[in-house]
Structures are given as structure tokens and as C-alpha cells.
Amino acid sequence: MKCYLCGATTRFYLKKNGYMIYRCDSCGLARTELNQQYDSFLAEQYNKGYFTGDLSRGAYINYKEDKPFIIRNMRKFLAEIKKVKPRGKLLEVGCAMGFFVEIALKAGYDAYGFDPSDYAVDNAVKLNGDTRIKRGNISSVEYPAESFDVIALFDVFEHLGDPRRDLRKLFSLLKKDGIIIIATGDTESTAAKILGRRWTFYIPPQHLFFFNRQTLTTLLNKEDLIPYRWFRIGKWLSLRYVLHLARTTGESRFASWLYDIVKAFKLGMFPLYLSMQDNMVVIAQKKNHA
């Protein structure tokens, strides 16, 4: 497999969940070998089980019930957006059940979102209305050109099948002075290096690309987007979600045992704040306005 970013030869890095991840020795970008059409993969992967604890998905334990934690984390992103764009038209890519669209609307933004998951979109529409939520992926959804002040991708960029093509589409939807904010994992973080294959972002096949600051910068620059602010973000998570990640992505038998104990004693919603410094966030703008 040739490197998606620089074209150099990649080599096998690790195998997990039956999928091979290859890494470029030249630039460091890592990529999952999907071996199926991306559109059909989207339809199969992001079903109800993805949001409700299906162990084969290694995703959320109960996205809807964990809303208080998700909202708490989303408010951090919103606070950073407000510093740059205190108002305007906002689009969330991969909006899931629409929680961020909901709080953005309450904060005064003209907010919209879309997601490929039928299950998630049905819930998002109930929350925000069908005029604000669309079903689809970046390639399939349609919006007027240069119509958004803010485009947000929170824990979504690593799921994209062709991020450069998708950035090109998003670029066309962004106003000349608009911003794009991306939150994803950092393969050069200490947590990623220490945990290795057990790092929470190494979840093939749902995660297809694995970036560091340099590879993400290079990719953005190729599509005339210039990063001008970077920061790290910690997250509030429920205890049961942390244990769910540990027993799936972390491949921990102890976490699986402990999860059953926590469930039996109804301690699953105990809040935990994790600041592992492995979640990087970048705000970028169009080259001619950088």
C-alpha cells in the first residue's frame, strides 16, 4: 500500500479486529486497509449497535444515556469556536444524534448537521428538526457553496475514507473567512506510544486514518487550508464507557470483569475526567484569509 499522503511505501504496523494497519516510514501517516467499498461500509458499520454497546463495534456503550458527558465535552469546543466566530452559520460533519447542533442553536448559531447513520439521524431529527439535519456523508450531502462560517468535525476525521477529497468538498462550503475545526487523535502523543495497539484510537475498521500534527498540517495545506491554532482537550466520560473502551479497544480482560461489577452495583454513570493529551484539535482557515 502506497502512502495516501506522500506516496512513499508503507509497511505493516499492526493487525487488530481482523484488519491490517500500515504506516508510512517517510511521513508517519497510518491507514487501515479496509478492503471494501466505503459507502457500503458506512451503511453496515454505523447502525444502532454502534451507539448502544455492540461489542463487535468497539464504539459507544450508550450514546443517548451518556449525553450529559458528551454535552460537557462539546461545550469546550463551542467555547473555542466562539473566540473566533461568536456567531454565524455552523455545520457539524458526523453530527450523530445532534447534541452539538442543539447546544450551538441555543448559543445563537444557525446550526446544521449531517450523519450517515440512519439510527443517529432519526434521533437527531427528533431533537433538532428535519430542516437542520440531513442523512448522508460528505460526498453525498448538498449545501450552497460558501455558506458556512464554521464547519466542525469532532472525532470524525479519522473515520473518513478519502479525507483529502472530503476536505476539498468542505472547502467549497466554507465562506472566504470561515473556519474549520477538527479534533482527532495524535499518533505522536505519549499515550499513543505507551499504549501501542491498545491506544483508544486504534479501532479498525471504524478508524481508517491515524494522524499526527505534521501529517494533518500537510493534508490541510494540500487543500489550501492553513492551521492557525492548535490545542489539546481532555474529556468527561462515564465510568462504564471507559471500561467499555478498555475491554474492547484496550483488549483488557480485567476491564471486562470490572465492567460487570460496575454494572451490578449501578456505578456506570460515575463521571471521570481523562486528560491523556492524545486528542489534538486544530482550527484552520482558507489560505487567502490566513
Automatic annotation (TrEMBL):
Ranges in coiled-coil conformation: none
Keyword Methyltransferase listed: yes
Molecular function via GO: methyltransferase activity
GO biological-process terms attached to the record: methylation
Gene3D superfamilies found in the cross-reference section: Vaccinia Virus protein VP39
Record flagged with keyword Iron-sulfur: no
Protein name according to UniProt: Methyltransferase type 12
Source organism of this protein record: Candidatus Woesebacteria bacterium GW2011_GWA1_43_12
